[in-house]
């Protein structure tokens, strides 16, 4: 790659980043379906036509935000499940990771919470797909212990979905609590008890 091409590519990445960051800021107070192209490009200081050098449309930008918002969380959860074994240890580590993720990506979590059931179909589908990948990670961590105990794959996945649903609900609650540390502690303790209750039920599921 020539020096000129390298500079051009760096500028393109910078412009794309500016669009994503501006969109996150604007989406704190509105949904993606209501965000206008001209409103977004005006904030960035970009001509509306230049937007299409980076994204096909606003929905495409939304999908990119979904991947950015949830992709890093998948990596953290994967590492926790691989490095820890006991239920309580895993649950404590997951809650800590979720709280930390929200602290550093509050606008991302607000975007996911709003758009998970929002009006842009491709974005809803992207959120579903990313959460599905997270469910796969959790199911894969449980399978070595549960499959030999007679759990069919569909039940392992159902259990994983319960854990992931609690993670998402807890992340949203952390986000809405803002900087209220006492409320954060209450949310974390409630989520911990809920996950432990799911774990307790898991041990008796095959007897039901």
TrEMBL record:
An example Gene Ontology molecular-function term: DNA binding
Taxonomic superkingdom: Bacteria
Alphabetical UniProt keywords: DNA-binding
Domain HTH tetR-type positions: 13-73
Keyword DNA-binding in record: yes
InterPro entries hit by this protein: Homeodomain-like_sf, HTH_TetR, HTH_transcr_repressor_FabR
Residue range(s) of DNA binding per entry: 36-55
UniProt-recorded name of the protein: TetR family transcriptional regulator
Keyword ATP-binding: no
């Amino acid at each position: 790659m020539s020096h000129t091409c390298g500079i051009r590519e760096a500028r393109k990445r910078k412009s794309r980043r500016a669009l994503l960051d501006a969109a996150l800021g604007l989406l704190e107070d509105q949904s993606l379906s209501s965000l206008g192209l001209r409103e977004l490009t005006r904030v960035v200081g970009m001509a509306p036509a230049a937007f299409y050098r980076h994204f096909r449309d606003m929905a495409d930008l939304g999908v990119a935000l979904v991947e950015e918002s949830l992709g890093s969380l998948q990596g953290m959860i994967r590492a926790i499940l691989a490095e820890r074994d006991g239920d309580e240890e895993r649950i404590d580590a997951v809650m800590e990771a979720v709280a930390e993720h929200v602290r550093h990506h509050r606008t991302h979590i607000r975007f996911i919470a709003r758009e998970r059931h929002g009006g842009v179909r491709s974005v809803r589908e992207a959120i579903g797909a990313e959460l599905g990948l997270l469910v796969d990670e959790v199911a894969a961590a449980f399978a070595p212990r549960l499959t030999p105990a007679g759990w069919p794959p569909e039940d392992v996945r159902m259990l994983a979905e319960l854990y992931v649903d609690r993670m998402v609900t807890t992340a949203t609650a952390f986000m809405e609590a803002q900087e209220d540390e006492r409320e954060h502690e209450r949310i974390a303790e409630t989520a911990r008890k809920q996950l432990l209750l799911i774990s307790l039920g898991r041990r008796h599921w095959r007897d039901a």
